[in-house]
Amino acid sequence: xxxxxxxxxxxxxxxxxxxxxxxxxxxxxxxxxxxxxxxxxxxxxxxxxxxxxxxxxxxxxxxxxxxxxxxxxxxxxxxxxxxxxxxxxxxxxxxxxxxxxxxxxxxxxxxxxxxxxxxxxxxxxxxxxxxxxxxxxxxxxxxxxxxxxxxxxxxxxxxxxxxxxxxxxxxxxxxxxxxxxxxxxxxxxxxxxxxxxxxxxxxxxxxxxxxxxxxxxxxxxxxxxxxxxxxxxxxxxxxxxxxxxxxxxxxxxxxxxxxxxxxxxxxxxxxxxxxxxxxxxxxxxxxxxxxxxxxxxxxxxxxxxxxxxxxxxxxxxxxxxxxxxxxxxxxxxxxxxxxxxxxxxxxxxxxxxxxxxxxxxxxxxxxxxxxxxxxxxxxxxxxxxxxxxxxxxxxxxxxxxxxxxxxxxxxxxxxxxxxxxxxxxxxxxxxxxxxxxxxxxxxxxx
Length: 446
Fold this sequence. Notes:
It is found in: Cytoplasm. Pathway: Lipid metabolism; butanoate metabolism. GO terms for molecular function: transferase activity. This protein is of the alpha/beta class. It has two domains: 4-180, Glutaconate Coenzyme A-transferase (3-Layer(aba) Sandwich); 196-436, Glutaconate Coenzyme A-transferase, CATH 3.40.1080.20. The protein is 28% helix and 20% strand. The protein has 16 helices and 26 strands. The protein has a seven-stranded parallel sheet, with helices on one face. Helix 8 crosses helix 9 (221-231) and helix 15 (411-420) packs antiparallel against helix 16. The longest helix is centred in the C-terminal third of the chain and has 13 residues, at 424-436.
């Protein structure tokens, strides 16, 4: 069939397309690189004529015009499922609200709970069969579009076409309006350059990686350092099953480490959910049958992850307390990122035969303004601090001073292990707190 006529009938300018948005609507922008550019600009220009427009997005990689045009939030209320650095800055200025979630549940939120009046997302060009590909972010995209009363796609010819898997595309028959933005590039995420601490942590984790391990790497310098170190190691025949596809996987592939030959499910395929990284990474994704993109309800399901032997999950955290509670998304009441898929993979990795989850962190941080150093190991999480991974799910903690396994440990064993990898400057103080909390044995080191 030829869909050119239908395409032309649905083609609109950005200004014409956003006319469908009415006061009081919930508008969905999608996830990461799929968030619209021209539609966002056009909607921002309608501020004088609209009221009470609520907008959902996540992991924003380019400034949002609906925010810049409405710094008093008189018309637009922007909300994010997971903060990028930009989202965090907006939140600090009270210009972005956070939506708590566990990532694997995101499609269910859309299908069972949420209202979407208008969805507008960026997609790759239509193919000869009439399908627009979601490209770099399958995430919960199909669930959001199924829920939406009106669907607008912003076509970008520079977007790579990601092969599935499933739920990686939408047919033109399900699209209401089409906008073209072919002169706009793709947001890239600079590859974090690991420093000495990142490399120390990476070496401790790579010691645990065996041949045929299946890897999930989170965002940031430490997971990236792990991937790069694995690429230079002697391990072989590794597999990939991850939510975020980052440049470290490409580095492993180039070195012949990533083969997926021995995966118990999705054999021969590198499974992923969304991507943000370099242009080279995006080029690798384009039409590549070695990669298979799936919705998050599959990639992040612990019941799926547990089927993969020797699953290794590597993620970051902000701080950890002496009970083993892990906060990876807030510092007190200040929201930094989000739960995302960390709890999904911490849970799934422990269920895997031979699986291990590693939560990485720096033992201390220094305030740039005051020069004062503080410990990232605290007696208890501060008031308002969010528990991303509960102590009951904590497995390995790793920083530049070592790694400890908390699985099955009593409260005093946890305190002893966690303090052993705290920065030496803070260990005596932490022991005193542990004694007051009645989680310290007299036989422990004082």
